[in-house]
Amino acid sequence: MRTLFCLILTFAVPLILAARAEKPTAMEPLGPNAHNDSTANGYKKKWWKEAVVYQIYPRSFKDSNGDGIGDLKGITSQLDYIKGLGVDVIWLSPMYDSPNADNGYDIRDYRKIMTEFGTMADFDELLKGVKQRNMKMILDLVVNHSSDEHAWFVESRKSKDNSYRDYYIWRPAKNGREPNNWVSYFSGPAWKKDPATGEYYLHLFAEKQPDLNWDNPKVRREVYDLMKFWLDKGADGFRMDVIPFISKDQSFPDFPRDYDGNYGRVYASGPKLHDYIQEMNREVLSKYDVMTVGEAAGVTLEKTPLLVDERRNELNMIFQFDVVHIDRSGGRWKPWTLPELKAIYTRFEKGLDVHSWNTVFLSNHDNPRAVSRFGDDSPQSRVPSAKALATMLLTLKGTPFIYQGDELGMTNYPFTQIDEFDDIQVKNAWKAEVSTKQVSIADFIADLRKTSRDHARTPMQWDESPNGGFTTAAKAWLAVNPNYKGINARQALADRNSIYAYFKRMIEFRKRTPALVYGDYKDLDPQHSSIFAYTRTLGADKYLIVLNLSKHPVAYTLPGSLKAGQLALSNLDGKEEGVTVVDLKGWEARIYEL
Ligand code: TEU
Ligand code: CA
User: Fold this and answer.
1) What are the φ/ψ torsions at residue 519 (nearest 5 degrees)?
2) CA Rg, the chain, in Å?
3) Ligand located closest to 473 CA
4) Does any ligand 1 atom lie closer than 6 A to the CB of residue 105?
5) Which of 52, 353, 410, 554 could potentially form a cystine with 405 if both were Cys, beta carbons 3.0 to 4.6 Å apart?
6) CA of 388 to the centre of ligand 1 (A)
7) How far is CA 47 from CA 50, 226, 228, 571, in A?
8) At residue 436, does pLDDT exceed 50?
């Protein structure tokens, strides 16, 4: 017996130790700084700073069983396509059990897969496929609110003394009305009176998305447990939905007197936000080597370091909304100019020091298509402009996020009537604004043609077969863009000059060019109305990026006495090197090594 014990000690213990050293697990705290402390340009080097991320909206990616709805098996079947682009990380939009009031951003069960998307076995298979290809996968963490069909809320609404009452935010009427004048992102008041108790519950989004009460320690414990559940399965981190909204001033004051209509600012200003994120970091994140990105509606650049400065141990990075809000005023479309866009990136560079990290994105599932919005989706300009935008996305400072279909140059959908939309935001706004005759039908649709979230949600275009090869069903859950015969993955993969091929080259180039990750960013010509020219500099390595973000040719004189160096990459066939004037065609993009 004794000998046996000794034998186990001699052989098994070193083996166990070796295994632990190789693969950090949840058992072994591995702080964000445990891997290595090497730096570049003052930045700590991290895999998630060097990564390129690809976002998947599962409902619209690929349908494997012919019911018209994308699913997990569909994603698994296309992993080689994603890997082929050269991306490192997949961000999966919500795939949890949900009644789909807001396409999965209303979660009924945080530990179950949405029936339409498949089973937990399908999820495990997908994650395995991702890992086999040396990629990582982050999940969407939607914990500002749940679905009203979540078991917690079903209980909570039953009575004032239910043990789940405090999982959500309940208030009595104030002067016979809502407890305060907050509004929902999806039209109308942010409070809904519930018949069972006559009290109001808070919902910053749809009525079917009641806000969780983070001031209840039990709620926070539940969230940390569910995060561990997915991280222990092997998920590599989270994109955190409207995370700055989790803390609320429990006295619920009305909007401030000097309120400018930006309710996100108010909702993101809760008193305990940073306490809770630091607690989440301590309890969960610090124990894994993961990536976190907060969707930070309402967070100003000045406040950004509070969330992402690595010395504070909160999040790795956030999505700033400045760029995707550039063409909005009060939710409606407004024109914008290139100098305004460039000013945002300069503000980022100046406002964040080496302790903070940023993201770069031009689109996601809440926005129109990048090429239709920042480029030009007309037949002559679609391909070069999508490539120019790819050049920009992958050479600015911050971790780049590519939204599914942008690598094909997918465009906005030609909506003409209300029944073509699926989005709850659109349907509620229609009831609030058009049915009440505040806005005309024509104006409403014209605005949505530029702003609707559904542009991004039309199914992926895989080939020329009916419904773009997305589904074998007669009808997809949301109509496929009619241009799928000319814009699809099959053609893109067969064409050396496709947008997909260009993304791949661009990603490869970024991978071997640390200056594009860690290098300083400098805008050389902030006022030019169609040229975006900037440098990325890391020690002796210096790159000049010149983008003509217009359809008109420009003979561009480089600022100062700068000479274009050696051409490293370009989206058209321009070959000039060493010149002081670069002759750019419409939407031409070039990268020079200086
Ligand atoms: O979006 C939250 C958000 O603040 C907005 O940017 C969003 O576009 C909103 O719909 C206003 O247009 C996140 C998700 O990304 C979005 O899909 C969800 O609908 C929302 O949270 C609620 O979970
Ligand atoms: Ca399906």
Assistant:
1) -70, 155
2) 25
3) 2
4) yes
5) 410
6) 27
7) 5, 24, 21, 28
8) yes
Residue 241 Cβ < 6 Å to ligand 1: yes
Do 412 and 369 contact (CB within 8 A), yes or no? Answer: yes
User: Looking up tokens 């619209």, which residue turns up?
Assistant: 60
- 568 CB-contact burial (10 Å; exposed 0-12 / middle 13-18 / buried 19+): middle
Pick from 491, 291, 455: which is nearest to 362 by CA?
A: 455
Residue at 129: amino acid letter: G
The CA–CA distances, whole Å, from 143 to 305, 362, 489, 494 equal: 22, 25, 34, 42
* 136-141 and 109-113 beta bridge pairing: unpaired
Residues 6+ apart with CB under 8 A from 65: 71, 73
**pTM, two decimal places:** 0.94
Whole-number Cα distances in Å, 63 to 89, 115, 116, 168, 290: 21, 13, 10, 35, 29
SS3 91: strand
What is the whole-number distance in angstroms between the Cα of residue 65 and the centre of ligand 2? 5
Half-sphere exposure of 132 (CA within 13 A, CB side): 9
First to last CA, the chain: 72
Q: Is 366 in the pocket of ligand 1 (CB under 6 A)?
A: yes
Q: Which amino acid belongs to residue 21? A: A
Q: How far is CA 423 from the centre of its chain?
A: 18
Residue nearest to atom 17 of ligand 1 (CA): 366
The Å distance, Cα 243 to ligand 2 centre, comes to: 30
Residue bearing the CA closest to ligand 1, atom 14: 241
- Which atom of ligand 1 lies nearest, measured to the CA of 425? 10
Q: Is 348 in the pocket of ligand 1 (CB under 6 A)?
A: no
Say if residues 75 and 56 touch (Cβ distance below 8 Å).
yes
Is the C-beta atom of 429 inside 6 A of ligand 1?
A: no
CA of 62 to the centre of ligand 2 (A): 8
**Could you tell me the CA-to-CA distances from 551 to 163, 302, 374 in Å, in that order?**
62, 35, 12
242 CB under 6 A from ligand 1? yes
Q: Given ligand 1 and candidates 185, 245, 332, 427, which is best to mutate, with the most ligand atoms within 8 Å of its CB?
A: 185
* C-alpha span between 333 and 243 (Å, rounded): 25
Catalytic residues: 241, 295
Strands (E), 43-132: 43-44, 53-56, 89-92, 96-97, 109-113
Measuring CA to CA, which residue among 508, 489, 509 is closest to residue 499? Answer: 489
Task: With CA atoms as reference, report the closest residue to 316 among 14, 33, 24.
Answer: 33
Q: Which residues contact 315 (CB under 8 A, 6 or more apart)?
A: 240, 243, 277, 281, 292, 293, 294, 307, 308
Q: Check pLDDT > 60 for residue 16.
A: no
pLDDT at 133: 98
The tokens describing 564, both together, are: 């274009």
Model confidence pLDDT, tens digit, residues 522-540: 999 999 999 999 999 999 9
Dihedral (C-alpha) 269, 272, 277, 280: value to the nearest 10 degrees? -150
Dmax (CA) of the chain: 87
Q: Which tens digit of pLDDT belongs to each residue from 116-149? A: 999 999 999 999 999 999 999 999 999 999 999 9
Take residue 336 and report the two structure tokens written for it. 């914008």
